[in-house]
Specification:
single chain; alpha/beta; Rossmann fold; four-stranded parallel β-sheet; 4 helices; 4 strands; about 20% strand; globular
Length: about 120
Amino acid sequence: MSRAILLVDHGSRRSAANEQLERVADAVRERVSDCMVAIAHMELATPSISEAIGACVVAGADEIIVHPYFLAPGNHTTTDIPRLVEEAMHQHQGVSVRISEPLGLHPKLVDVILHRVDAV
């Protein structure tokens, strides 16, 4: 079984914002060696969720874990991303897909906040 992690953010008209997700993916790639890591933007930029899922499947993934790179479980993470993933999966029968929780309330995020505050 070949697994892929698909990081999904909102997408932006600003290329610097979109490039940040690629840098996050690079950091994840450095930590995992047993699966591919890809990115997608929910809207406003490419690759779309459908395009990225297709690329993962073409690269050999038969299991895809979608991680919404969002802070809170809002409408995008609970409704929009699941809908877009489901629509994309109609073209890829036999591929397992699961969606993780967004970043949410995690103790390490508190560490990041305090680090950023201390840096000011």
